[in-house]
Design goal:
This protein has helices at about 5-15, 40-50, 65-70, and strands at about 1-5, 20-25, 30-35, 50-55. The protein has about 70 residues and is α+β, with helices and mostly antiparallel strands. The strands form two sheets. The chain has a two-stranded antiparallel ribbon with strand order 1-4. The radius of gyration is 12 Å and the shape is globular. The chain starts with a strand and ends with a helix. About 15% of the residues are buried.
Length: about 70
C-alpha cells in the first residue's frame, strides 16, 4: 500500500510503468502490483516526480483473494 499526495498523479504515473501490472486506489491509499524487487523503485519514482510519500508497505492478501487463488 502507498499513502501519498497527490494520489491521482501518483496513480497515473504508476499505471504508465511497464513493470507495474496493476495499480488502483483502495481505501484512501494506492495498491500497486509489481515485482517485490521493484518496491524501492516505487518510492523513488514517486518522490522523483514531486509526490509526497507518507507510507509504503507490502499489502497482505485478503482472505477472499487467498481462497480465489485456489480456483
Amino acid at each position: 500500500h502507498v499513502a501519498c499526495e497527490p494520489r491521482e498523479k501518483a496513480l497515473a504515473l504508476l499505471k504508465a510503468q511497464e513493470w507495474v501490472s496493476e495499480a488502483r486506489e483502495e481505501g484512501g491509499r494506492l495498491r500497486v502490483w509489481c515485482d517485490p524487487a521493484r518496491f524501492s523503485g516505487v518510492n523513488a519514482l514517486l518522490v522523483g516526480a514531486g509526490i509526497a510519500v507518507s507510507e509504503l508497505s507490502p499489502a497482505r492478501q485478503t482472505l477472499e483473494e487467498f481462497f480465489l487463488s485456489f480456483q
